[in-house]
Amino acid sequence: MIIPDFTSEEKLIRKGYRNIAGIDEAGRGPLAGPVVAAAVVFSESAKIGEMIKMGVRDSKLLTSRKRDYLYEKIIEKCSDWAVSVVSQDTIDEINILQASLLAMRQAVESLRVRPDFLIIDGKFTISDFPISQLAIPKADQRIFSVSAASVIAKVTRDRLLVEFDEKYPVYGFAKHKGYGTKSHIEAIHKHGPCEIHRKSFSPIDEIIKKFKRSGLAK
């Protein structure tokens, strides 16, 4: 298992940066629900060391119980944090990449502590943004502040999907969180897509066309 460290943040601090924000998103791949981005700022290196010892990792490498625990600890220990939720309708309108970058931008803009440097998980920076930034693939596995952001984003999105499960119980959102599992796709074929399904995603668009041909479209 790759354990994130504070090396990248330390290098930036030596260059004069003080409020470094880790940025990550959750929900690029699912067939349903929003994409959620989180921004987390840790200004005290002692607290970072403490959080690493607590087990902060890329959220995908943690159990849901561990994520919930670390979510609360990150909020307690960080200098600031913020999330942004971009809906499935916006995803369909501008595509998932642009929706993810929009969510990241909005999360940073919601911070009370203004960051002077952003470390972003992935290949893309936020365009036309007045803050120095660096995009690093797999940063959520390697860089502490981004790992922390991944936990905040993942827990936030999972909780939203549990709420959606109460409104649309036939799809099983609480279990698969909108990802394209066999049971989820079978439910879409049986009941058709609901309001939170991403209509531009395959196989949702194919299923919509099938329902239209059969006259069963909602």
How would you sum up this structure, described in words?
By secondary structure, the protein is α/β, with parallel strands linked by helices. It has 2 domains: 7-166, Ribonuclease H-like superfamily/Ribonuclease H (Nucleotidyltransferase, domain 5, 2-Layer Sandwich); 168-214, no CATH class. It is 49% helix and 14% strand. It contains 10 helices and 5 strands. The chain has a 5-stranded mixed beta sheet. α4 (88-94) packs across α5. It is elongated. The model has no long low-confidence stretch (mean pLDDT 93).
The CATH architecture of the largest domain can be named as 2-Layer Sandwich
Question: Fraction of residues in helices?
Answer: 40-55%
Kindly report the CATH topology of the largest domain.
Answer: Nucleotidyltransferase, domain 5
**Number of DSSP E strands:** 5
**Unreliable segments (pLDDT under 50, ≥5 consecutive)?**
none
In spatial order, strands of the major sheet run 3-2-1-4-5
**First-residue to last-residue Cα separation:** 46 Å
- The whole-angstrom Rg is 18 Å
Task: Write down the overall geometry.
Answer: elongated
CATH class of the largest domain, anyone? Answer: Alpha Beta
Overall tally of structural domains:
2
CATH H-level name of the largest domain... which superfamily?
Answer: Ribonuclease H-like superfamily/Ribonuclease H
Figure out the total of helices. 10
What is the ordering of alpha helices and beta strands? HEEHHEHHEEHHHHH
Largest sheet report: 5 strands, mixed
How much strand content do the residues show? 5-15%
Integer average pLDDT: 93
Structural class, by secondary structure, is alpha/beta
